[in-house]
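Example 3.
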Amino acid sequence: MGMLELRGIDKVYRSHGRPPVHAVRSLDMEVGKGEIVALLGSSGCGKTSTLRMIAGFESVTSGSIAVRGRRIDTLPPARRKVAMAFEGYSLYPPLTVRENIAFALKSQQVSRSEVSRRVEAIARLVEIEDILENYPRVISGGQQQRVSLARALVRDADLYLLDEPMGQLEPQLRAVLRGRIKSLLAEREMTAIFVTHDQTEASALADRIAVMEDGVLQQFASERELKDRPANLFVASFIGEPPMNLLETEVKRADGGFRLSLGPDVAFDISGDGLDRAAQQALVAARRVRVGIRPQRIAVGEGAVRVRIVSNQWLGDQSHVAGECAGHLLIAVIPNRVAARPGDVVPFALGPRHLNIFGADGVCIRHAEVS
Amino acid sequence: MEHESLAGRIFRGVALTLILVFFMFPIAWILLMSFQTNEQILRIPPRLLFEPTLANYEALISGQLHTAAGNLEITFMHNLWNSLVLSSGAVALALLLGVPAAYAFARFKFRLGETIAFTLLSFRFAPPLLVLLPLSLYYQELGLNDTYFGIIWVYQLIALPLILWIVRGYFEDISPDIEHAYRLAGHSWREAFTRIAVPLAGPGIAAAGLLSFIFCWNNFVFALILASADKQPVTVGALAFVTASGIQYGQIAAAIVLSVTPTLLLALYAQRYLVEGLSLGAVKG
């Protein structure tokens, strides 16, 4: 049994005089004990709504939420046994930082010495020991955010919900804190769900990432799997930096396989052997499909695809080479410097086995081979 | 501001003095009048130097008015007491009703919410006489005429919208997540309201309360129509000095000084809250 189970969650915001907003659509999700899950997506994709429904500040329009097999979606927030760090910090202004962190422990009947031991331990972890006696209004945004994080993590709860937990921190500190928080969560087997729009943060902290868009869960998998086996076009183009190259191609059958042609000169031959039955049928039915290839999978200086270079940048550890081919922009990432200037025509190699193929509905028909 | 020219500074000083004199002079004049006899007041030209007398205050406090036409009973001290009871009662009731309502308007979106809030505010737009005639008929039917409660109730037309709109702005300024955090820590909705929202909106509530106290205190027409002599506040009570043997300017001045003093002291004491409350709350509301 999972620690948290979301079943068929829908959230519709209705306000008078405006069309209803369907923020979350039939969301199913299961999170195991001790797992760290990131809700990743752009603004307005429903990730914060999901978090707030779990916390109990938003009602679910339909569906059920269970923690340890106990339905909580009708319980008041106080009885859900979840801790939360808010995006806007939401510290209690009349209390000092120390009192803010200790606050929830007081109602949990923890002894006084234990409270101060735990407060100091968590304060050390997020580096706020020296401001424990200050009031929230005199400390910086980044410090408030860490206090808010500490206030959530210090509690004993079934579930820790973190809304953009490190958005206000400086990059170095963020990297350090990620590591520390991850080991704290792992050590105590704490189950955590955090919302972020930062891929790096999601990959660094989470065991699994739930990619959301338009209120729909697109894919819920490890970072590796999201990269290697994207479920659909959205995930494919959302995950990875720079994003996956996407090309519109025409499908034709060709001796036992398929020929995907991009304009008159460029075509990719996909052999039928590597395709499962469903993929074969999908390709037979489709007239046009999109193929996607990771910039890291493109070789420059060899191959059959003639590309007119648009830009070539050396970033210190890799080159980003962008070129134009049959009306599409292709970006290749190469680990070494490339001698190509804008306007040059350079061959690119796009190996058919590195191609992801997406049907007209965006669903992935075939994934690229992972070498 | 630091690099202001001399001329600018002088101009500002003169302008401030003019404005101050314009607004403060009547109050100063009333204060001086209250220490003069009627003869001294009516002397032409008026003099700034005179022999002060406490006779006006004595008359008010003892309730005995000596006029050329004989002795007159006045109930000024009782009027003052009425003002205190009516204004405090009205503000207490308005806070009791208005603060939870303001919270509801600030936190929850519900059907007709804005309409109700605006309707309550619109009570302030209408001239009081518009509601007074029908109200006095109702009040006679309901037996509310000439009762403290009846007047306190009608004072809600003054106090409730003020409190509602100022306090609402304050609640809207407080992030609801602070209450959410408190509720997640194991507290009920009610506790979050009383222990987090109300204390945080404290300055706004105090400002709104004070302001509505002052407005209730200064009200004249409601009590004039709906109350008889023994329930009337000072504003109406001051009419008693317009007697058959002439207008008792000295007593009127003394009565005004006495009736203005409590609200003036309150306002001075709470000046900081008032400015904060009005600028923070009302502008956003």
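Strands of chain B lie at 64-67, 70-73, 242-243, 246-247. The radius of gyration of chain B is 23 Å.
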